[in-house]
Amino acid sequence: MMNIDTGSTNVYADLGMPDAEEMLIKAQLAAKIGEIIKRRRLTQTKAAELMGIPQPKVSALLRGQFRGISEAKMLEAIARLGRDVKIVIGPSRRRSSPGHVELEMA
């Protein structure tokens, strides 16, 4: 019989990666960038020009290879693609535990 374990909402945490929260955010940002590029029917070259990122990095980003690009640069790229970026800081859901980073997209 096969045993199936239910994972969390973060595959990177399930894999035991030390930077799991950051990797999840980057994956979500990369997916959003890909969605915007597709919706606008941009070539990677044009997207790279608009985003201020070399085309090979755009290609890598769209293939899920985003370790070489910061979250800040990805947020800037989204803004340069014509989207507003809003960062909200609020209280932790539980006072006894540290806060966490969550990405919400409209």
UniProtKB/TrEMBL annotation:
Q: Identify the InterPro entries for this entry.
A: Cro/C1-type_HTH, HigA2-like_HTH, Lambda_DNA-bd_dom_sf
Task: Specify the HigA2-like helix-turn-helix domain's residue ranges.
Answer: 11-89
Q: Which CDD domains match?
A: HTH_XRE
Bilayer-crossing residues are none
Superkingdom to which the source organism belongs = Bacteria
GO function terms (MF aspect)? DNA binding
A Pfam entry, by short name:
HTH_37
Q: Which residues form a coiled coil?
A: none
Name of protein: Transcriptional regulator
Lineage start: Bacteria, Pseudomonadati, Pseudomonadota, Gammaproteobacteria, Oceanospirillales
